Amino acid sequence: MNLTEMPELVNWPETHYVFVEKIGPFMQTAPAAWTTAHALVPALTQHNQIAGYMSLYKMGPSLYRAGFSLAAAPQELPEALQYELFPGGKYSRFVLTGPYSNLGRASGRVWDIVSETGIALRDDFAIEHYLNDPSVTPAEQLRTEILVPTL
Question: Rounded CA gap, 147 and 73, in Å?
Fold first, then answer.
């Protein structure tokens, strides 16, 4: 697994975020949330410009949001999507290079590193930010930022 293990401190910007939210074990809720979110892309893009794909999650309770950052506040949002102006903030960024099938293991390792190094956390969403398009990028070259909310 190709994961950076020395985090970089970054400031995530305020983001217009639309999403499908699921509660429960991530191994079940994440695929279900993304299936729904992907099905809504055609309706979403009729009136909005997607700037990126990202998920937000919290461990307790297990809360998962699959969604899209938008270039501006949403217009005529499909009913199944929720909107939030995500405030952003300070994050410790790790980067996984490789297939999405490694995300569970990579996230687990990130949280181990956080625990081992004593990174001070704030109560906020962690972020998975998907940097390239899996429909045109080979799985081994996919890059995903895993961002942990830091004090």
Answer: 23
